[in-house]
Write a structure and sequence with these properties.
155 residues, alpha+beta, Alpha-D-Glucose-1,6-Bisphosphate, Chain A, domain 4, seven-stranded antiparallel beta sheet, 5 helices, globular
Length: 155
């Protein structure tokens, strides 16, 4: 069973600290995401490797709670985190690279099998992963970056 992934990118201008915070911080990015979740941060949460937060999904996802854990963070450069849901591990990499006229923001999500989530759902999601359907369904074709751009314009 192979891995599946997708990558989207966007060129943005503006204050790099503001862009980075809106792009990466869980409490900020939840404000503009299309698929709404409730973000729960621990009182001692920091944007450092090893720290985690929970995303509580709604009825459309059977009220799943996904624990995301930061694996790497270099401010204004790279943010990597991982989580498991319904038998699938998602590894997410967000990057920001300076260009002559702004910044290139890139999001890459990589899926692989995992033993986590509700029993029984694994088979369906693994089948979706193996056939490539999961990456096609999961890829929003940059819509989250469009929403980020709109969010930044409103600040």
């Amino acid at each position: 069973m192979g891995y599946a992934s997708f990558t989207n990118w966007r060129r943005l201008n503006g204050d790099p600290d503001l862009i980075w915070h809106a792009f990466t911080h869980p409490s900020e990015s939840t404000q503009y995401e299309e698929h709404k979740t409730e973000t729960v941060l621990a009182p001692d949460f920091a944007m450092d490797a090893g720290h985690s937060w929970d995303s509580k999904h709604g009825e459309e996802c059977d009220f799943d709670v996904v624990r995301w854990t930061i694996t790497r963070h270099v401010p204004n450069r790279v943010f990597e985190f991982t989580g498991k849901q319904r038998g699938i591990r998602q590894n997410v990499t967000l990057t920001m690279d300076p260009t002559d006229d702004g910044y290139i923001l890139t999001e890459t999500i990589r899926f692989r099998p995992a033993f986590a989530g509700k029993p029984g759902a694994h088979l369906l999601t693994w089948l979706m992963l193996a056939t490539g359907v999961l990456a096609k369904v999961g890829d929003d074709h940059g819509e989250s970056l469009d929403l980020l751009e709109q969010h930044l314009a409103a600040l």
